[in-house]
Design goal:
The protein is α/β, with parallel strands linked by helices and 504 residues long. Helix content is 48%, strand content 12%. Converts O-phosphoseryl-tRNA(Sec) to selenocysteinyl-tRNA(Sec) required for selenoprotein biosynthesis. Homotetramer formed by a catalytic dimer and a non-catalytic dimer serving as a binding platform that orients tRNASec for catalysis. Each tetramer binds the CCA ends of two tRNAs which point to the active sites of the catalytic dimer. This is O-phosphoseryl-tRNA(Sec) selenium transferase.
């Protein structure tokens, strides 16, 4: 309501009451004005009434919501279901235009504003998270893998002779397929074992650049966030190699925004060498539905070039989701989540260490991995061939999601390439192990319940080992109710043995 409407209301209701309502309205509008003027995430989160008012104000700026609008084109924001319209807050036109995902749409000023504001807020949060010199970014309605493909396709025009992408191995399918989909040949660089950690083989990377010739290498495709015992790539050294040989550098920072260590690596890499773009997932870092990513970098023109490579308009849903989330949290709320995640990592590490020792296992020493942990399963693998995968399937049937069991000797073919020791990031890791990660949003009760169920699964599998070895038996008269449940669950486990093989 504007001043004229409030003035008209004073003829119906006491002017004092109307003025009070007007002041309340102004407090909402003040927050909106600050957002539009500064383009930064507010320190304190907005309440839902302010958020919904803001979204409504934007939505009525789109032509599909004009009173008396007459659309005679093929895309006029028509929606058959009112439920679908409400689900999207009546933002129907999407973002961008046919030639550029970041372009303004003449018939959708509200959606265009939403897109610009979201990109501005996300840039602010990336700086807050540790990459202080980032200059440009945009939200793209594709997950991390396809967003990486978009980066590679953009580089194709800059490097027409390039055929290869040098890629320090990480056993995750989407990042590998992103290179294949873009039409390039991945050159896999095996990691080297340093203690328990798998780290970047810098000598092998540089030797491969020299062997193939810099002009024939599209880029080096490195990784920050990953499953232990692999740790983030040596980004600073890789960035220096890229700068020295004039090779682009694309970083897969999938769930690295939540880690100050991963963000620091990107910042340092850009400072000492070359990083052209880094890509991160929306769902993994901001707790929104799957379907979006952020492409960011240190050169405005290159990031704009990537956005123009996207063909056609795009869904506004990922942008809307992350805008609502960041405005609800505020920068203080997001910083609090980052702090809690670090605390949960320490707590998970301590609890997993205690549990591993209780079962004659150990927590792998991976200090360079700030998110993922790994616990050995040597004693299981030594005596019972199916015991390792049995643990994974048991956790799955007991509603533990995200835990990853990695057996020895697994083989996997991805897009015609065969990987030995798949999921372990190397051909021959010394032992089987189990992964767990402390990601943003994890709570103490999640850790406690996971440790309790994992402990129970390990004990149950050992009982099965003893049965098979005729070392000990179980007296049916001594069965508890829990034992009956475990026996029923084991039958389910035999059906689900392979479900834990690939969480990618």
């Amino acid at each position: 309501m504007n001043r004229e409407l409030f003035a008209a209301g004073e003829r119906l209701v006491s002017p004092a009451y109307v003025r009070q309502g007007c002041e309340a309205r102004r407090s909402h509008e003040h927050l909106m004005r600050l957002l539009l003027e500064k383009g930064k995430c507010p320190e304190d989160g907005w309440d839902e009434s302010t958020l919904e008012l803001f979204l409504h104000e934007l939505a009525v700026m789109d032509s599909n919501n004009f009173l008396g609008n007459c659309g005679v084109g093929e895309r006029e924001g028509r929606v058959a279901s009112a439920l679908v319209a409400r689900r999207h807050y009546r933002f129907i036109h999407g973002i961008g235009r046919s030639g550029d995902i970041s372009a303004v749409q003449p018939k959708a000023a509200g959606s265009s504003l939403l897109n610009k504001i979201t990109n501005s807020l996300v840039l602010d949060i990336i700086k807050l998270a540790g990459v202080h010199t980032v200059t440009s970014c945009f939200v793209v309605p594709m997950a991390t893998g396809m967003s990486l493909t978009l980066c590679f396709l953009t580089l194709r025009h800059r490097r027409p002779k390039a055929k290869y992408i040098i890629w320090p191995r990480i056993d995750q399918k989407s990042c590998f397929k992103s290179m294949i989909t873009a039409g390039f040949e991945p050159v896999v660089i095996e990691n080297i074992l340093e203690g328990d950690e798998l780290r970047t083989d810098l000598k092998a990377v540089e030797a491969k650049v020299q062997e193939l010739g810099p002009d024939h290498v599209l880029c080096i495709h490195s990784t920050t966030s990953c499953f232990a015992p692999r740790v983030p790539d040596r980004l600073e050294e890789l960035a220096v190699i890229c700068a020295n040989y004039g090779i682009p550098h694309i970083v897969n920072n999938a769930y690295g925004v939540q880690s100050s260590k991963c963000m620091h690596l990107i910042q340092q890499g850009a400072r000492v060498g070359r990083i052209d773009a880094f890509v991160q997932s929306l769902d993994k870092n901001f707790m929104v539905p799957v379907g979006g990513a952020i492409i960011a970098g240190f050169n405005d023109s290159f990031i704009q070039e990537i956005s123009k490579m996207y063909p056609g308009r795009a869904s506004a849903s990922p942008s809307l989701d992350v805008l609502i989330t960041l405005l609800s949290l505020g920068s203080n709320g997001y910083k609090k989540l980052l702090k809690e995640r670090k605390e949960m990592f320490s707590y998970l590490s301590n609890q997993l260490k205690k549990l591993s020792e209780a079962h004659n296992e150990r927590l792998l020493h991976t200090p360079h991995n700030p998110i993922s942990l790994a616990m050995t399963l040597k004693t299981l693998d030594k005596h019972y061939s199916k015991a390792v995968t049995q643990v994974g399937s048991m956790l799955f049937t007991r509603q533990v999601s995200g835990a990853r069991v990695v057996p020895l000797g697994s083989m996997q073919t991805v897009s015609g390439y065969t990987f030995r020791g798949f999921m372990s990031h190397t051909n021959n890791y010394p032992c089987a192990y189990l992964n767990a990660a402390s990601a943003i949003g994890m709570k103490t009760q999640d850790v406690d319940l996971f440790i309790k169920r994992l402990d129970k699964c390990l004990k149950t599998v050992r009982k099965e080992q003893n049965k098979e070895s005729d070392i000990s038996g179980v007296d049916n008269n001594d069965k508890t109710e829990d034992a009956d449940i475990e026996e029923m669950a084991l039958k389910l486990d035999n059906v689900c043995l392979d479900t834990c093989q690939d969480s990618s």
